[in-house]
Specification:
Blueprint (H helix, E strand, L loop, with lengths): L13 H4 L3 E3 H7 L4 H7 L4 E5 L2 E5 H6 L5
Antiparallel strand pairs: 1-3, 2-3
Length: 68
């Protein structure tokens, strides 16, 4: 009997998907900003996950993506 993989989790509803918290490294790839820029210029959008780890909502990362 096989067990479901971690990647087989049930997807979030469309409205909730944008509220998902992603790592700063993933936000760097999704937006046009470096991790350092997130910390310096958009600290208000950071979510503290642990004493040394931060994340950002997918919605905010996509909002700041380069559109050119």
């Amino acid at each position: 009997m096989s067990t479901p993989a971690d990647n087989d989790a049930e997807p979030l509803p469309r409205g909730r998907e944008l509220d998902r918290i992603i790592s700063l490294q993933a936000a760097e790839k999704a937006s046009s900003l470096s991790v350092d820029s997130w910390k310096r210029h958009h600290r208000d959008k950071l979510v503290k996950l642990s004493p040394r780890r931060y994340g950002v909502r997918l919605r905010d990362a996509l909002m700041l993506a380069k559109t050119s």
